[in-house]
Amino acid sequence: MPKKVDHEARRREISEALWRIAGTRGLDGVSLRDVAAEAGISLGRLQHYFRTKDEMLLFALRHINRLAAERIRRRIEALPGEPAPRDVLRACLSGMLPLDDKSRVGQLVGAAYYARAVHDEALRAEARQGIPQLRAFFTDQLRLAAARGELPPERATEDEAMLLIGLADGLATYVLLDVHDPRTALRLLDRHLADLFGDAPTAAADHAV
Predict the structure, then answer these.
(1) Is residue 128 included in any domain, yes or no?
(2) Is residue 156 part of a domain?
(3) In this structure, what CATH number is given to the domain that contains residue 62?
């Protein structure tokens, strides 16, 4: 009886080969053949799973984003008691920064994808898709903080949520460019949250990220 092939697992393995390339030499000019060689398979076998580079890059981005979301979820669950909105936001925002090798590779894959998305409407639509949900989640956390008296009500807005997203994206870019190291990026994130919420200590600030 022929061995059943787990196609999803194969796609993940190819994605991980792509990540290794991204983490060592970037993705500019990388071909399907390069990824096939890194994955230890033939080009024909790779094209059985991904017909184009954009298709492969999109799957790799979605996969690495799922892993990042899972890391953030575990980080929130590890907070003591019922986490305050500020702690939840910090866990999410710090999870968007390239603070270690895994998250750095995720950011590099994302950067390669977004660079292509600027000139491709289909890819650009995919890149935009997750932003409204993230903005809504951050807005809900800000409004909960305001209801608990932890944040001025006038700061609990969608605009403030977008500023948080923009801050994380900007800091992530600067870490990738070595303008800041990860520790500095995290310090600047905490400074912004302190300005937003005040200087009360939080559970998240006591945990290394």
Answers:
(1) yes
(2) yes
(3) 1.10.357.10
Residue 148 near residue 189, CB atoms below 8 Å: no
pTM: 0.83
Asked if 97 and 175 touch (Cβ cutoff 8 Å), the reply is yes
The number of beta carbons lying within 10 Å of the beta carbon of residue 116 is 16
Distances (CA, A) of 133 to 88, 128, 129, 161: 15, 10, 8, 11
Scanning the structure block, which residue is given the tokens 């017909």? 51
For 171-195, how does the pLDDT look when each residue is reduced to its tens digit (9 = 90+)? 999 999 999 999 999 999 999 999 9
Domain count across the chain: 1
The SS3 call for residue 7 is helix
The boundaries of the domain holding residue 175 are 7-202
Q: Rounded to whole angstroms, how far apart are CA atoms 86 and 69? A: 18
